Amino acid sequence: MNSSQRNESKETLFTFTSAGDDPPKGEFPVTKKSPKLCGSNYPLSIAFIVVNEFCERFSYYGMRAVLTLYFLSFFHWDENLSTAVYHAFSALCYFTPVIGAIMADSWLGKYKTIIYLSIVYVAGHLIKSVGAIPSLGNQAVHVILSMVGLFLIALGTGGIKPCVSAFGGDQFEAEHTSERSKFFSIFYLSINAGSLISTFVTPVLRGDVKCFGEDCYALAFGVPAALMVLALGE
C-alpha cells in the first residue's frame, strides 16, 4: 500500500464533525414529559389509573359477593355444585394473570393488554347481567349465558392484574421515587376500598330491590357491570 492509499484510509477511518453541525434527525428523540396533577410531580394519568382500579375491584367483588346465592336460588343448584363452580371460577381468576403477563411481555404491551382485556371484561359482565333476567329464555339459556360471562370475567380480571400496577409505576420519571411509592399506597387503598364497599352494596341491591317479582340479581350484576364500563371509559 503506497502513501496516498494510507492517507485515504486514515481519512476514511477518522471523520470528525464540527461542534456547530446538527446531529442527524431521528437519532436523538426528545422525550415528551407527561402532564402533572395539580402542579405536583404526579402524572395526571395516575388519577385515571386509581379510579379505574377502584371501579374494577368494585365490579369484581360486588359480583362475587352474590354469586353463590345466585347459583342456589336462581339456578336451584345444590350446595356442592354451587360451591364447586364458585371455586372453579375463583381458581380461573388466579390462573389468567399468566395469560395477561404473556400477552403484555411478548405481544401487545401493558397498555393494549389492559384495554383489550378490559373490553372482554365488560362483555363478560354484560352477558352475566343479561343471563340473570328471569324472563329471558329457560334455565339452560341462563346457565349458558352465566358461564360464558364468568369465563370472560375471569379472563379480563386476571389478564389485567399483572399489568395495571406496573403500568402505573411506569408513568413516573426516574427521579420521582417517593411519589411512585406513595402512588402504590394509594393504588392498593383504592383496591381495598372498592372491594369493601361493593361487598356491602351489592347484597343490598339483590335483597332490598325486587325486579321480575323476585330478588333482583340482574341489578346486582348490572351495577358492577356499569362500574366496569366506567373503568374502561377512564
UniProtKB/TrEMBL annotation:
Residues 1-28 are annotated as: Disordered. It is found in: Membrane. One of its GO terms (molecular function) is symporter activity. The chain crosses the membrane at residues 58-77, 83-102, 114-134, 140-164, 185-205, 217-233. Belongs to the major facilitator superfamily. Proton-dependent oligopeptide transporter (POT/PTR) (TC 2.A.17) family. One of its GO terms (cellular component) is membrane. InterPro entries: MFS_trans_sf (IPR036259), POT_fam (IPR000109), PTR2_symporter_CS (IPR018456). Its main location: membrane. GO terms for biological process: oligopeptide transport. It is a multi-pass membrane protein. It comes from the Eukaryota. Residues 1-18 have a biased composition (Polar residues). Keywords: Membrane, Peptide transport, Protein transport, Symport, Transmembrane, Transmembrane helix, Transport. This is Solute carrier family 15 member 2.
